[in-house]
Amino acid sequence: MKPVVARWLEFAKIDLKAAKTLLEDGSLTPVVCFHAQQGVEKSLKALIESKGLNPPKSHDLIMLYGHVDDMLTVEEDTLAKLNQTYLDTRYPASLGMLPNGPPELRDAKAFYEFALDVHDKVRSILGGRIS
User: Fold this and answer.
1) What's the pLDDT tens digit per position in 104-126?
2) CATH number of the domain enclosing 104
3) Could you give the number of structural domains in the chain?
4) b/e string for 33-48 if b means 16 or more Cβ within 10 A?
5) Residue 66's domain spans which residues?
6) How far apart are the two ends of the chain, measured CA to CA in Å?
């Protein structure tokens, strides 16, 4: 595995650890969603980098996934919801709102589990590759 790919995965894992820790406080669900999104983003960028491409300077999960959907399958509805929630956490007026308000603890847990699953799938795909 290329060192830069390993670094993307290391950084993704840090975001996932942060999300897991923040789940302990039910009032921090928008921040959990932010770190879950970052974990997915960095995992996707690791996969893009493994293809010999420079990852786009974008936080758009749907666009990033489009670069690797030939290598990885994810639940696209969840990806789209996490993508939107992340965008909303960037601006104080909406505080990471879902259609019915801020993410509830169950939403944050579901996004964290989704991000962990994406990270694990990417690690599995890249585990056998040596560059």
Assistant:
1) 899 999 999 999 999 999 999 99
2) 1.20.120.330
3) 1
4) bbbbbbbbbbbbbbbb
5) 3-127
6) 5
